[in-house]
Design brief:
The complex is a heterodimer of chains A (106) and B (118).
Chain A: E1 4-7, E2 10-13, E3 19-25, E4 33-38, E5 45-49, E6 53-54, E7 62-67, E8 70-75, E9 84-90, E10 96-97, E11 101-105
Parallel strand pairs in A: 2-11
Antiparallel strand pairs in A: 1-3, 3-8, 4-5, 4-9, 5-6, 7-8, 9-10, 9-11
Chain B: E1 3-7, E2 10-12, E3 18-25, E4 34-39, E5 45-51, E6 58-60, E7 68-73, E8 78-83, E9 92-98, E10 107-108, E11 112-116
Parallel strand pairs in B: 2-11
Antiparallel strand pairs in B: 1-3, 3-8, 4-5, 4-9, 5-6, 7-8, 9-10, 9-11
The chains are: A mainly beta (106), B mainly beta (118).
Chain lengths: 106, 118
């Protein structure tokens, strides 16, 4: 089974700050990695697919990078509507999710 | 437009059973592998099970193996999850989700809540 770790588990940042979340896979997953945003009571929303591709309609302040085992997700300028929990997900071998990062406004 | 609509959730006693359904529309259901993912209250996302297009390949998380059965009916564009021997720890929102392909992204339903409580 592929395990996913994610850090930090939570962060607090100011509006306009750059926010970075890292995700690590327990084995090489190539670029089979997605990033999701989830708000309370809602289904996860796909932001980034294949590690670095921005989903249609998602603001360009969101970005992703990495391949193999190490991945990074960034918000270039944090906005109030970005308050949510963010999950990475591998789909190289079945699906596994990272534990999530809760993003709050300072 | 892709739509995935889950149903069948509710309150059930420990040891009981429940069958979830997911009605798919807006795409060729028979061409996609499908998944169930759950989320316990206040917790993260947990993959539960997946099924290939023709049901030839089926996989389960260790936490549900032997108790849950995934199935599909391509003629009815529907995905199912039969849940037996339910435990309090199975309490969660259950989502059905479509596998991505080279040209399509994953899609999720809105979820159905299963509560296991005496």
């Amino acid at each position: 089974d592929i395990q996913m770790t994610q850090s930090p588990s939570s962060l607090s940042a100011s509006v306009g700050d750059r926010v970075t979340i890292t995700c690590q896979a327990s084995q090489d997953i190539s670029n089979y990695l997605n990033w999701y945003q989830q708000k309370p009571g809602k289904a996860p929303k796909l932001l980034i697919y294949d590690a670095s591709n921005l989903e249609t309609g998602v603001p360009s302040r969101f970005s992703g990078s990495g391949s193999g085992t190490d991945f990074t997700f960034s918000i270039s300028s944090l906005q109030p509507e970005d308050i949510a929990t963010y999950y990475c997900q591998q789909y190289n071998n079945l699906w596994t999710f990272g534990p999530g990062t809760k993003v709050e406004i300072k | 437009e892709v739509q995935l609509v889950e149903s069948g959730g509710g309150v059930v006693k420990p040891g009981g059973s429940l069958r979830l359904s997911c009605a798919a529309s807006g795409f060729t259901f028979s061409s996609y592998s499908m998944n169930w993912v759950r989320q316990a209250p206040g917790k993260g996302l947990e993959w539960v099970s997946s099924i290939s297009t023709s049901s030839s390949y089926i996989y389960y998380a260790d936490s549900v193996k032997g108790r849950f059965t995934i199935s599909r009916d391509n003629a009815k564009n529907s995905l199912y999850l039969q849940m037996n021997s339910l435990r309090a720890g199975d309490t969660a929102v259950y989502y059905c989700a479509r596998d991505p392909t080279v040209t399509t992204r994953p899609d999720w339903g809105q979820g159905t809540l299963v509560t296991v409580s005496s």
